[in-house]
Design goal:
It contains six helices and nine strands; from the N terminus they run E-E-H-H-E-E-E-E-E-E-H-H-H-E-H. By secondary structure, the chain is an alpha+beta fold. A hairpin with a 2-residue loop joins strand 5 and strand 6. The radius of gyration is 17 Å and the shape is globular. The structure holds iron/sulfur cluster. The site of iron/sulfur cluster has 11 residues, from loops.
Length: 151
């Protein structure tokens, strides 16, 4: 009986990768960027801040050529995501909508472009201190997160 070849078997990260988020918040700041979200994600975040979706978009988001993205605030760290909270716990950078953050945030650092090569992974490690920490994350988990990253 023929068996299906495992599409992940030949990936450079087939043996898994070490990653453990420290909550430093560095992936939520830095140079200007995008945190895109869809209508369902807008609804979930609007509920957290107690606004209608329309009011939520006006207060926390901006329109880009690709859709809606969260606003950013420029400060000494760079361009912080509008939901990055550096006040509540001194020395920490927390996400105010963590449980309902967009899928783009949930799947970091397992984005296809970061996994495209070991070089890209190592380059991201310079920005994310969680890369290379903790236990190995198995490829089964990595590939699920990679494949649910918004295109
Ligand atoms: S930069 Fe990395 S370690 Fe820091 S909060 Fe983001 S994912 Fe976690």
């Amino acid at each position: 009986m023929a068996t299906m070849a495992d599409p992940n078997a030949n990936k450079w990260y087939a043996k898994g990768l070490r990653f453990e988020c420290t909550g430093c918040g560095d992936c939520c700041t830095g140079p200007p960027g995008y945190v895109h979200f869809n209508d369902d994600e807008a609804q979930a975040m609007a509920k957290v801040v107690g606004l209608t979706v329309d009011k939520f978009r006006k207060a926390y988001a901006r329109k880009t050529e690709f859709g809606w993205s969260l606003r950013e605030h420029k400060n000494a760290h760079g361009f912080d995501c509008v939901f990055l909270d550096r006040i509540t716990e001194p020395g920490k950078a927390l996400c105010k909508v963590y449980e309902h953050r967009p899928v783009q945030c949930q799947t970091f650092p397992w984005w296809p472009e970061i996994l495209s090569s070991e070089k890209a992974w190592k380059a991201t490690a310079r920005e994310c201190e969680g890369i290379g920490r903790g236990d190995f994350v198995p490829i089964e988990h990595i590939s699920i997160e990679r494949d649910r990253t918004p295109k």
